[in-house]
Design goal:
Elements lengths: L15 H4 L4 E10 L13 E3 L3 H18 L3 H15 L8 H9 L4 E5 L5 E3 L5 E5 L7 H4 L1 H32 L10 E3 L8 H8 L8 E2 L2 H11 L16 H6 L5 H12 L5 E4 L5 H11 L1 H6 L4 E4 L5 H6 L13 H4 L1 H9 L1 E3 L5 E3 L3 E5 L5 H13 L7 E5 L1 H4 L9 E10 L2 E4 L17 E6 L5 E7 L1 H4 L5 E5 L2 E2 L5 H9 L3
Parallel strand pairs: 6-7, 6-13, 8-9, 9-12, 12-13
Antiparallel strand pairs: 1-5, 1-14, 2-4, 3-5, 3-18, 10-11, 14-15, 16-17, 18-19
C-alpha cells in the first residue's frame, strides 16, 4: 500500500485539532477490549490474546510514514493533503500548517506503551496507551485512532480464536493421546480467500501462527518473517501437497480412481499428500477406492490424507448414529470416516486405550469448522474410542471471517489531557449505555495481581503511570522492545 499515511483517517478526524480547548498540549488515550459478549467458545475464559502491534508499528508508523510522508518533498506532501481537504471539506476550510510542521519535524512525536504481545488480557484492561511527546502535536494522538483500531482488532481476535482451538485440541490430546506431536499442525489455516484483501490476510493470519504451524496462508508467513523474526532463522509454518476440486474434476468422474492412483503412486509415492475426496461420491472414495488402493497406500513412506469438504463435519467424521452403537450392519455414513478408515487400514491402541489410525492414512476436514464443532468432533471421537489425533481441522471462513471489532468490543478512548499546563482527568459514561462504553479515568497503570493476571488501575499520578506492565514500544519514530515470534509463542503456550 503506497498511500500517504497522513490521509489514513476517518473524515471527522480532520477537524478535531481545532475543536480541542484552546491551550491543549497533551492527549492521552488507550486501546482496550471492552467485552467478549459476542465471542462464543466452549473454552471461554473472558480473556483476549493481545497480538499485532509490533508489525503495525513497523510497517505503518515507521516504514510507510518514512517512505510516503517524511521522505517525500515537503511541498508535495502538503499540497496533496491540501488538495484532498479542499475537495472533501471545502476549499480553504482546512489548514495544512500542522501537516507541514510534522513533516519538518521528521518523525512521529508519539509514545506508545503496550503489554507484551502473546499475553492474555481480561476485558476492560487496556492493551496499549498512546500520547504525544511534543505539545504542539497533541492532535496526532487520536488522529491515528481509526487506523490503529482497524489494524489491531483482527490480529488479536484471530490470535485469540487460534488459542482456543489449541486449548481444545490440547485438552482432548491429554485425554486420548500418548503422542502429542500432531498438535502444532492439528488446525490448518484455510482463511486466505475469505479475508478482506492481501494486507488483511497477511496481518490477521499471522495471529493463527502463535498457536499453530500449519497454514496455507503464505502471506501471513511472510508477514511473520518480516516483522517478528528480526532476520533470524525460524520455523514459521509449513504445508503439504494437496489437490483441489478442479484437479479432480479434470480427471473426470469415470476415472476418478485413476486420479487417486496417479497421485498416490506416481506424483507422490512418498511423503504426505492431501486429496479432496467429495467431488462426486465421498463414501465411495472412502470405502471402495481405499480398499482397491490399500496395497499401494500401505507401501508408501508417508500419509494419504483424505479431505471431505461438504456436509455436516461432525457427522462426516464421527457418523450419524449414536456413539455407542456397534451394530455390524451400520452404513458407512452411520459409522463416520474415522471408523471406516479404521476398519480398512487398522492401526494401534495407544497407552491411554484409544485407537490411532495407521499412519499411512489420515483425515482433514476444511469446511465450516467452528470452535464448537471442533470440540464436538473430538468429544465424539473419544466416545467412540478414537484418539483426537486422528483428524486435522482446516479452519477458514467460519473461524476467522465471522467476527467484527465488536467481537471483543475494541475501542480507543482518551482518558487524560492537559490544557494550559494543567492536567484533566477525562472520561465518558453515557446514561443511555449499559455500562459497556464507560471509560477509565485519567492516567492508567496495569499491574499483575497475585494470580499473574493483568489488573487496571486508573486515576494514576504521572509517577505511577510510568510503572507497571505497559512498556515502551514506540517512541519518537523508533520501535522499542522488539520481540521474536518464538518468544510470543512460548509466552502464550505458558498461559494455556
Amino acid at each position: 500500500m503506497n498511500m500517504n499515511p497522513i490521509l489514513a483517517i476517518d473524515g471527522y478526524k480532520v477537524s478535531h485539532r481545532e475543536q480541542y480547548p484552546a491551550g491543549t498540549t497533551k492527549v492521552y488515550s488507550n486501546f482496550t477490549p471492552r467485552s467478549d459478549r459476542h465471542f462464543h467458545s466452549p473454552v471461554a475464559d473472558g480473556k483476549l490474546v493481545f497480538f499485532g502491534l509490533q508489525g503495525f508499528l513497523q510497517w505503518f508508523l515507521v516504514d510507510l510514514f518514512n517512505a510516503q510522508f517524511f521522505a517525500r518533498p515537503e511541498a508535495e506532501v502538503v499540497d496533496e493533503y491540501q488538495a484532498v481537504m479542499d475537495s472533501y471539506i471545502g476549499k480553504g476550510a482546512v489548514s495544512a500548517d500542522h501537516i507541514r510542521a510534522l513533516h519538518q519535524l521528521g518523525y512521529l512525536p508519539l509514545h506508545i506503551k503496550a503489554l507484551d504481545e502473546g499475553s492474555k488480557v481480561a476485558m476492560k484492561v487496556p492493551v496499549l496507551t498512546i500520547t504525544n511527546t511534543l505539545p504542539e502535536f497533541f492532535w496526532l494522538v487520536n488522529y491515528l485512532e481509526t487506523v490503529l483500531s482497524a489494524e489491531l482488532w483482527k490480529s488479536s481476535t484471530n490470535a485469540t480464536i487460534a488459542h482456543h482451538y489449541r486449548t481444545i485440541c490440547e485438552r482432548w490430546a491429554e485425554k486420548t493421546c500418548s503422542d502429542i506431536s500432531h498438535l502444532d499442525f492439528q488446525c490448518h489455516d484455510f482463511s486466505f480467500r475469505g479475508m478482506s484483501g492481501l494486507q488483511d490476510t497477511a496481518q490477521a493470519g499471522c495471529g493463527h501462527l502463535l498457536s499453530f504451524k500449519g497454514t496455507d496462508n503464505i502471506p501471513s508467513m511472510l508477514y511473520a518473517r518480516d516483522y517478528y523474526t528480526q532476520g533470524q532463522e525460524c520455523f514459521i509454518a509449513a504445508s503439504i501437497p494437496a489437490t483441489e476440486h478442479s484437479v479432480m474434476c479434470m480427471g473426470e468422474k469415470e476415472s476418478e480412481i485413476e486420479t487417486f492412483r496417479r497421485l498416490i503412486c506416481d506424483l507422490y509415492p512418498n511423503g504426505f499428500v492431501s486429496i479432496v475426496s467429495d467431488t462426486w461420491d465421498y463414501w465411495r472414495v472412502i470405502t471402495e477406492y481405499t480398499r482397491e488402493l490399500k496395497t499401494q497406500i500401505m507401501a508408501r513412506e508417508g500419509r494419504v490424507v483424505f479431505r471431505p469438504d461438504s456436509g455436516d463435519p461432525v457427522e462426516i467424521l464421527c457418523g450419524t448414529c449414536a456413539d455407542d452403537d456397534t451394530r455390524a450392519d451400520r452404513t458407512p455414513e452411520e459409522k463416520g470416516s474415522v471408523e471406516v478408515l479404521w476398519e480398512i487400514f487398522g492401526g494401534t491402541v495407544n497407552d491411554k486405550g484409544f485407537k490411532v489410525l495407521d499412519p499411512h492414512v489420515g483425515l482433514i476436514y476444511g469446511d465450516s469448522i467452528t470452535l464448537e464443532r471442533a470440540e464436538e468432533i473430538l468429544r465424539r471421537l473419544a466416545a467412540k474410542g478414537f484418539a483426537s489425533s486422528n483428524v486435522v481441522f482446516g479452519v477458514g471462513s467460519f473461524t476467522y471471517q465471522y467476527n467484527t471489532r465488536d467481537t471483543f468490543g475494541f475501542a480507543m478512548k482518551a482518558t487524560y489531557g492537559e490544557v494550559n499546563g494543567v492536567g484533566r482527568m477525562i472520561f465518558k459514561e453515557p446514561k443511555t449505555d449499559s455500562g459497556l462504553k464507560r471509560s477509565a479515568r485519567g492516567l492508567l497503570r496495569v499491574e499483575r495481581d497475585d494470580n499473574g493476571d493483568y489488573q487496571l488501575f486508573d486515576e494514576q499520578t504521572l509517577e505511577q503511570e510510568q510503572q507497571g506492565e505497559l512498556k515502551t514500544r514506540f517512541l519518537d519514530g523508533k520501535l522499542h522492545g522488539v520481540e521474536h515470534l518464538e518468544t510470543l509463542r512460548q509466552r502464550l503456550a505458558a498461559q494455556r
